[in-house]
Queue: 3 jobs
Job 1
Amino acid sequence: MPGYLLIESRDPFEGKGFSQRLELAAALIAQDAPVTFFLVENGVLAARRAARVHELEKLARSGVAVLADEFALRERGIPAAELAGHIRSATLDLLVERLGAGAVALWN
Amino acid sequence: MRVLQIIETAYRATLEEQDDTVLWFTRAIRGAGAAADVVLTGTAVSYTVRDQDAHGLSIGTWSQRHPPAIEHELTKLIESGASVSAIAEDLEERGIAAESMIAGVARLSRKELSGLLGRYDRVWKW
Amino acid sequence: MTPTRSLTFLLMDAPYEQSRTGTAFRLMDAALRLGFAVRVFAYEGAVSLPVTQQKPHPNAMHGRSVEEEAHPVPHVWVSSLMQRATERGTPLDWVNCGLCVDERGATEVVAGVRRGSPADFWKMVTETDNALIIPTR
């Protein structure tokens, strides 16, 4: 089953949209569908261990793969040592492969 | 004339422009005589982080020669005499520690921002 | 013979306006590198991406001449993807939405870009493995 690919490009602190999309991811994983939450652009600002985005860890523990674009991380000066433990750095190749596998992709 | 630039948007087309166009604009109007200072708020507080690296962009047969160097742009602004501040609450919620920031950026609480506006002839939000 | 994997991308943003453009081109580049055939439907502002009148400029703030600054021009990105696609033998099909072209006067575009309509987008969707819409704000 190709599952879902939620691509998050916006700063999580910009508005309440981010938490709404986390809720969507949580609802989808509860339906036993594979879900990838892929942070790109300013979305990677959620990836710092010290950032106040506790809901992402909860999402990861529920089985959602939380990935962050390695280029966007580097572009924003977020090194591997500062990355939250539940978030994996990944290249866009992985995003493309998920698309190619037929994942339902929503870009925010 | 004293100008306060409140900058919230960040990394918007910075790869294509090879800089941040609002920081660039601020330096340009300072060059033209504006006494412009900057407050970074929201996403833009991320501009204060050291060691940002946007090298390596390549598309098809094209490779970028000069990636944006945002912290360098900010440092040049500071060195030119501009006051550059970042909203403390926005830094904290993004987990940006003081030791990871470039030198010369002042921390400003959101409450202090309102008091700052009255000291400028023009205040513009970006 | 294994059929070529294929993807459709729908873009909406004009050049130099949003970080989405850079990410979109990185995704399309990655897709070509991974062996996907790529089809692009440029909608609204994105029809200006392949416009050939875009010109690089010097940057006095950076202390660089036109040549030194090497300012990116998205029509070069489009051509460069097309060139890479040709080298790899995996086609890149770029369609500009015709009405959007008319509204914006985006008529002078790189070779290989063709004019179309949402019906072309739909055809792309039915003929490729998946489609990603990168919406504007």
Job 2
Amino acid sequence: MSSRLILNPKNFEITINRLCFELIENHDDFSQSVIIGLQPRGIYLSNRISSQLRHFLPGKEILTGNLDITFFRDDFRRRENVIVPSATQIDFIIENKKVILVDDVLYTGRTIRAALDAILAFGRPSKVELLTLINRKFSRHVPIEPNYVGKQIDTIMSDKVKVSWQETDGKDEVWLFTKEKEE
Amino acid sequence: MTQQLSVKHLLGIKELTVDDIQQIFATTANFKDVINRPIKKVPSLRDITVANLFFENSTRTRLSFELAEKRLSADIINFSASSSSVSKGETLIDTVNNILAMKVDMVVMRHPKPGAAVFLAKHVKAKIINAGDGTHEHPTQALLDAYSIYEKLGTLNGVKVVIIGDILHSRVALSNVFCLKKLGAEVMVCGPVTLIPRYISELGVLVENNLQKALAWCDVANVLRIQMERQDIKYFPSLREYVMLYGINREILDNLKKDIIVMHPGPINRGVELTSDAADSRQSIILQQVENGVAVRMAVLYLLAGRID
């Protein structure tokens, strides 16, 4: 297994800030928009994005929630183990709001498909967008594409992407792990 | 994070580990959140068929299971003994195997005979959930009772719970004792000597015949119904005498120095074990128990469905 740093702490910060500005471009003052982080790993990104947005838009309310999609997955009973769900916390109405789904890595797209199902339990949004820090191209199982991308990378199935967060791992970084070819 | 229950069926609390119960509670909290949303349904069990077999009367448990199954999107069939071939002499295994031949994955069963669920689990190929087997166990009731206390007090460790009434005939009492003990609670049973099983203290529970003393000791009182239908002989002179000695009313609760939590698994015989002013008081969490019942059963169904091969 060889590893490569694909986003260092400095570029990580630049990328987060750029994503925030792209969001502001489309969502103005966020009065009609909400940010929903996907459990378990997407909530670090959604919390970071919303705290930066509050910094860029002082005085504006940025509604942020967490969504757990465990019960909406399409691989229940097809895995070895039952997945333990995390908490869903959406303390606002999403009816007619623009929803920005946030996850750290977009890979097969199945999580997002489940999230689209799950979000409907909270009302009918006027629009749903997708923001992802890392977009693993060419590995999609369903036709889902992100609206906002931190970084695009070309990967194969055996590769692994690990996003580290200041809050949990002490450093903001993204690593790519590649399995060595057997000679 | 992933974890598997240690059991393939839910036959009783006795077989569960503390980890199992904690996992059920964690999942219950998630489902409680789901059933309080505008859309209370999730698609998890959309490819599962559940048969609800009730060989004994039930309102709350049957409706609660049915609702839990529907909110998980399972297909369900209902069956009650009075309207079936059981009255024509069919055996339990035959009845269930015929139902399973229609491709049923899980069976929720209530039966008047203790051990019926264990017996079925040994002989048929489906996940069995015991919804009460005679005077033996009623695991989902114990789980929802324990969850309701946990939700109210934040812990069960060191909590003093007294179970009052007909302990001898109560599957709820036995399952509750197992569940509460596993979670670190102190348990006492209280009732007339004739309605307390002789060797129950072997399970590590305290026995008290005086209601006042039991209430003064406890943080939580789980009050049971006198099960007239299971009493083949007279266990106490008269219902009036039982009410005088073991009935709980507002006055008794007010005379205690603290606010205890009052629970009842239902159905309540108002004016017997609980008066209306006690059952409907702010100390009572009887309706929260019913709400938690649906969430607990969703959690059990979900976690066991994950174990279907």
Job 3
Amino acid sequence: MNKSLRTVFTGSALLAALAATGFADPVVSRLTPPSLLFSTGVNGAPYISRFLPNQRFDLQATVKPDSGQTITSAVFKVDGVVVPGTVTLIAATVSGLPANTVSPTLRAYSNATPGVHTLTVTATQSDAKTVTATGEFQVIGITQTGRKAKNIIVMIGDGMGIAHRTAARIAYHNVVMGKALAPLEMDDMPATALVKTSSLDNLVTDSSPGAACYSTGNKCNNNQEGVFPDDTTDKFDNPRVEFMGEYLARTTGKSLGIVTTADVFDATPAAFAVHTQDRNAGTGICDQYLDEAVVKGKLTVLLGGGRKWFLPATTSGSARANSTDYVLPAELTAGWGNATGTLDANRDLIADFQTAGFTYAPDKTTLTAQAASATKLLGLFSLSNMNVAYDKINGRRNVIPAGSSQTVVADYGFPDQPLLEEMTAAALTVLKKNANGFVLMVEGASIDKQAHAMDAERWMLDTIEFDKAIGVAKQFAVANPDTLVYVTADHECAGVNIIGPSKLTNSALTTLASTASGLTLRNNVTGGSGFPVYSIDADGYPATMDVDYKMLIGYAAGVDRYEDWLSNPRPIQDSQQPFVGTAPLNTYPADQAHRDTTGNFYITGQIAGTNSAGHTGSDIPLTATGRGSSLFKGVIDNTDVFFLGMQAVLGGVAN
Amino acid sequence: MPTSILPRRAFSVASVLLAALLALAARPLSAKTLGWNADALSVGLAKAGKLPPAPAGVTDIAFSEFYKSPVGPQGLEFTDKVRALAGQRVRLLGFMVRQGIPAPGVMILAPYAMTTSEGDFGLCDDFPPSVVFVPVPKYADIAVPFRRGPLLLTGRLELGPHEEPDGRISHIRLLLDPEPAAAPVQAASATVVATADTPASATR
């Protein structure tokens, strides 16, 4: 970002001369919340930082003193009026800043008046010189128009771009003579919009700001959630923006539910409840689910993987460590009224959740048995990410990979994992008990993870699983009409597209894949015509993804890989380890052997790296139904989605 | 949900198992027949007489023997066998995980040939619980160079939580035997293994 230099010269030639020798005014290098006005000097739309009336957020600046000086005080003004409250001069600890750089901070500010507001900071140096910097933010008003949405269900298909949806539709409902035989649940919704996804600091976002835009109405830097960037190394002290869940719990008494197939500390679920600049700080993130989100934000349902963060460090499988734990500074807890936290790797977080009234479900059987009677629900179904839909379904069908003695989920030790639609149904059963309503976020997490792995069958199955969960949400909205449901994504992943039907039957492809080398496979498979035929098994999922003339997927943001277009028996399979036949049965690993040059079709990736395709920057589709869904239309920013949803919940729509 | 107009195919568990067994019987040992399961590969190699015998004082162990399965409602529990082997020398066949951002001086051995992408996911992972961390002192300050294919490693078994340089917590570590001074045993075994998998055609 361009930095804007604003100094106030108090005036004489002597001072100007002394400036050259280091007797200069201090400099403001950052003003938060961020604005184009501060960073570029340009006034007007688009307003980077926007808030609901009374949505709380922190004011902060970073001030660099002249050498040999310190900053002694700072004052914030909004619209020319001094903001009441404590301003703390936090030491700026990132490297590269001049000595004694500080970040004056005022916690938990809010503004009730719709419109654009000017924000200034004036800092005073120890030699009495001052500096003033100017930025702005906007408060988006709520119009009282009609019937409000009592419940809001945010369905996030992580990495789910337009082609992921199309591919899932083809695999699940088939296209025959040019027409899809039926729509997906996510297709069959009355409102449609396109959403722009860039983050505060990158054209191509990641899942942290990609979810926080929906939960706060504001942009974040990549890797950060629910906070603006700052100049300290501390992971949890950043200037915060109040989450939708926190805000609605505080103002309307609604409950919050978070459901994901990923590890629950992962970016998308955490971005609805925990404020941090480090999406990787798993111990602190999971602790704060209880210490802050439950205690103050009415977090009532938390379902997903990630049990490893909830086990004491001495228990096998635990990932808890002080290095990823949290302790909040006193000035932050004084401003927000939340828990300080402590470094406690040996904490038994499952037991603490149970003490707080949560029913704990370690598997699907317990989840479905307990949901009806639970008032609060914690489900942790795997150590880290849950197994993906493809492997969960094969587990239920008892499909055992060749050479193994048990299914993939049994191999992992978690044979009874729920499907996302079962988790969504259980969450709704519990959340519905709150007469004030609720916010529920449901994430189909491994659409993205398997697109990163360029495993087409697994991300397609995960998209189909996500679509069934959407079906559960839609049924709830029909039975409870004051419910808004919208289906969106944080970003597209891997530059996926459908490059045609295969020219080959499955058996011909399997034969060719085991004997072909170089470009033979590509040249004989791509460029087909007609339509594949997928069929659905009695359990409601595709019988197999390896059909004749199957859908072929290309990746615009892929990395180097081998492609044979056949389903991998195991997830995250290393496609660059075909069996080369020269593996030494050595007692000590030696240096890397030559790259394998035989085998299947080798595709050079578009981006650097060896293991993982990348996110892309294209717009993603959003579809919506239920109370207030007519607000979602056109081509909008991802932060707009937050404000449209809040208009539906707080002000209603006419129709 | 709309009914598909296309015929539904009944899915028989018995036919799937039979097909898998037939496939295994018909084809030679390879990644595609074994789905890259190191435990199964080890058993297959031993049955074919292609696994060198374990040195004296070394016990063979498989990934499936580390933890009780299925996992209970809380954390993992070591099996009696692995508990008894703590501090003893063991031998394990596994695959080196191809990491996006490996930690210096330590590699991860897994029952399957897997990748990770720390840049995208950090500490969020898809590991089976039984992964083993293997410090490699020769590469103490740098990433252990990636080695493809199954690795047969011998060393002392160490159990208990330990924080690795990348913030991961390992619960099982293999402290490798010192590198052998003489040429390793590999030549005959590798040739035999290659023959089992390489078809007669010379174009591969």
